[in-house]
Amino acid sequence: MIGPALVTKDVIPDPQTLNIWTKVNGVMMQNDTTANMLFGVKQLVSFFSMGITLLPGDIIFTGTPSGVQLGKANPVWLDDGDVVEVGLDQLGTCTNTITHISANQSNFNPLGVFDL
């Protein structure tokens, strides 16, 4: 899911000045600013443009702000039924509910192997 909206630079002229946050079940888990990105938006666009042609509407996913659980002494992993909210200033919030499915219910096939 992408959203809640895609906007142009006339709506957000400087993408390096936005607060970004994540809540799980109403508890703040991540809260940072895009100013702390390892690579800024302009730098990322410039880098990718060296190898591919970026077209209007193309999306570059950049990762997550500080606060990830991996590497923490007592990580809190997402569980079935958890509600995850991700917000970005001037843009809005996306809310998703985690739903676990068993491996035999999934159509996901990471190796591309099919039963014949």
From TrEMBL:
InterPro entries: Fumarylacetoacetase-like_C, Fumarylacetoacetase_C_sf. Residues 2-98 form the Fumarylacetoacetase-like C-terminal domain. It comes from the Eukaryota. The keyword DNA repair does not apply. Keywords: Metal-binding. The keyword Metal-binding applies. Belongs to the FAH family. This is Fumarylacetoacetase-like C-terminal domain-containing protein. The lineage of its organism: Eukaryota, Fungi, Dikarya, Basidiomycota, Agaricomycotina.
